Amino acid sequence: MQALDGVSMEIPAEQVTAMIGPSGCGKSTFLRCINRMNDLVEAARIEGELLFDGKNVYDGDVDPVALRRHIGMVFQHPNPFPKSIYDNVAYGLRVQNDTDNMDERVEEALKRAALWDEVSDQLDKSALDLSGGQQQRLCIARAIAVDPNVILMDEPASALDPIATSKIEDLIEELAEDYTVIIVTHNMQQAARISDKTAVFLTGGELVEFDDTETIFENPEYQRVEDYITGKFG
Ligand SMILES: Nc1ncnc2c1ncn2[C@@H]1O[C@H](COP(=O)(O)OP(=O)(O)OP(=O)(O)O)[C@@H](O)[C@H]1O
Ligand SMILES: [Mg+2]
What we know:
Layout (H helix, E strand, L loop, with lengths): L15 E5 L6 H8 L16 E2 L2 E2 L7 H7 E4 L10 H11 L6 H11 L3 H4 L12 H14 L4 E5 L7 H14 L4 E5 L3 H7 L2 E6 L3 E7 H6 L4 H7 L5
Parallel strand pairs: 1-6, 1-7, 4-5, 5-6
Antiparallel strand pairs: 2-3, 7-8
The structure holds adenosine-5'-triphosphate and magnesium ion.
């Protein structure tokens, strides 16, 4: 089956772009196209171009592992490694053999992920002993430690309570000062609150409308988009 069809959009750098749409419309599939995570899905086939800094990430000479260093990802369910807090954040740097000033860089990533104050005196503790919201911020710290350009987030707060969610939302807005953030969310208020641009996908993997978030939520071009946003279908 075809998950996405004729999707064309230009995602602005250093802003937050939200992707919304009903379940099964292809949001996660699209997100996974961006850093070639779909390469790991055996049956997946992709046509077209996806330009990152002007270069098609599907060109034969692109190394997907190197690409994912520039385009990191945070998943719906926090997935820290069964290692210490410190080792989780240091992981990507060690893989890259880039271990100068490790302590400072771990601290910096944890600060940027708004977790440092809660964990600074227990960096040796297992990441699995953190709360869900803390684990998710740790996963964000792990993603930003390698200094990517883009961070993809697939429903990063859907497993969290409202307080943890609001921390993640604040964090996303801050991250967008330095990173390009692309977030999939089912939460319309969340998309409206934190994103600059919103892409609306509807059933069949069609990108129906992509515009400034304010326009999408206040004055969308398409009736189908308005119906979806106001809860009339979807
Ligand atoms: N690994 C896979 N193998 C085969 N089909 C898949 C795979 N992943 C997704 N699909 C199919 O692709 C379509 C789009 O799925 P996708 O997960 O991208 O939707 P989504 O918009 O993220 O939905 P949700 O909001 O429920 O997360 C669905 O029909 C789904 O069944
Ligand atoms: Mg999904």
